[in-house]
């Protein structure tokens, strides 16, 4: 289904951007809508709404791929094998000192951890391990975002697990990306995109 972009922008501009949808935000939304229309246009539009709600939160309304908030020390403490959370580091595949900083969150969905970068590097045939900033390219970030959420590549949970013909669970859909962190907030954003 083709999205009527001007109507869509008017609606979300009012609801989500206080009538101040910038050119940069519009450009990011056009990238995301274009990717959806090219690859997933026959899928449930509620999925698109949830993806956009997730992006809205993860990139702080910029609608552009970004680096995760934080300085190197924060990433080291949070994600590095020698930091404060070695178990988290292992879960993310951060097995070498320095991985926590190198593989901090990037993109539309904050791809994090050596193992996630390695998976997408292989899948996209792109050097994300030596140059993780490649995950900031809009087309790359879009691919990771949509396929990750629709196929369940981040946590093993997919959009179809929560939003389908018999269920519409906007809260637990957050488990696709990040447990229930900010689930209520993202539900609100997603429903406004819907």
Question: Can you describe what's shown?
Answer:
This protein is mainly alpha-helical and about 190 residues long. The chain has two domains: about 120 residues, no CATH class; about 70 residues, Endochitinase, domain 2, CATH 3.30.20. The chain is built from nine helices and two strands. Helix 2 crosses helix 8 and helix 3 packs across helix 9. It is globular and about 50 Å long. The two termini are about 15 Å apart. The model has no long low-confidence stretch (mean pLDDT about 95). This is Chitinase class I. It comes from Thiothrix caldifontis. InterPro entries: Lysozyme-like_dom_sf (IPR023346).
Topology:
Elements: H1 5-16, H2 23-39, H3 45-58, E1 66-67, H4 72-79, H5 86-91, H6 99-102, E2 106-107, H7 114-124, H8 138-151, H9 183-193
Antiparallel strand pairs: 1-2
Helix pairs in contact: 2-8, 3-9
């Amino acid at each position: 289904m083709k999205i009527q972009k001007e109507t869509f922008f008017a609606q979300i501009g009012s609801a989500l951007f206080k009538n101040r949808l910038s050119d940069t935000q519009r450009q990011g939304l056009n990238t995301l809508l274009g990717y959806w229309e090219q690859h997933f246009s026959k899928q449930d539009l509620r999925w698109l709404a949830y993806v956009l709600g997730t992006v809205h939160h993860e990139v702080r309304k910029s609608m552009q791929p970004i680096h995760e908030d934080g300085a190197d020390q924060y990433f080291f403490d949070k994600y590095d094998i020698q930091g404060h959370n070695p178990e988290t580091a292992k879960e993310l595949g951060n097995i070498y000192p320095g991985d926590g900083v190198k593989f901090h969150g990037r993109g539309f969905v904050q791809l994090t951890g050596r193992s996630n970068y390695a998976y997408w590097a292989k899948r996209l045939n792109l050097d994300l391990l030596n140059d993780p900033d490649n995950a900031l390219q809009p087309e790359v970030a879009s691919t990771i975002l949509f396929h990750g959420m629709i196929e369940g590549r981040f946590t093993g949970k997919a959009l179809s697990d929560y939003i389908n013909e018999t269920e519409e669970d906007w809260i637990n859909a957050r488990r696709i990306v990040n447990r229930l962190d900010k689930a209520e907030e993202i539900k609100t954003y997603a429903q406004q995109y819907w």
